[in-house]
Amino acid sequence: MCNLYNLTTNQQAIRDFVAATHDSLGNLEPLIDVYPDRPAPVVRNRDGSRELASLTWGMPTPAEHLKSPDAPDTGVTNVRKTWIGHWQQWLGIEHRCVVPATAFSEYGQTPDPVTKRKPLCWFALDDSEPLFFFAGIWTRWDGVRGSNRTPRPGTHDLFAFLTTDANDIVKPIHPKAMPVILTSPEEVETWLNADWKDAKALQRPLPADWLRIVERSRMLEK
Q: Which of 21, 73, 81, 93 is the most buried (most CB within 10 A)?
């Protein structure tokens, strides 16, 4: 599952794409790699407006999957089983969000014979890595995030994005799943504002010819 993605764009491009009316993000760095349990830009419905804000990646973990009742929660980054009650509580428009990205990564299945590590493969819409969005959910949560070594108690605004079946580009690298990707303002509008019976139709693989593998070395040169 995707636990690392990249964003190389500016705030105005994000605001224009989603028609955001409020920006509480602060200054966005020109290139960021986003890891689990770290802050990232998210566009959400908030108090009657569409807000660009910084939230922490990882929704609350179902209680039965925590190591212990008092263990810090590192969060769930990818959500597939939207029919489970734990996730259904956040499928209404008040808890939906979209997550801007320009590329996402998955680990390959076969370790490198020299390093013994699985290779990290990056995917984007095309070689120019244009802006797209993951279909996500968010919530405000009180509790302890992080690890036993570095716990972070308090109130946290959290997000995750949905996954679905892998398409023919992602499947050879990661057969199980890929993120739910939105590529047009109309899809963003549906995800943020439509009834769930219509919005859930977007939890589908992106057509294979809309996605390609890109070179990480070239991304770092931007």
A: 73
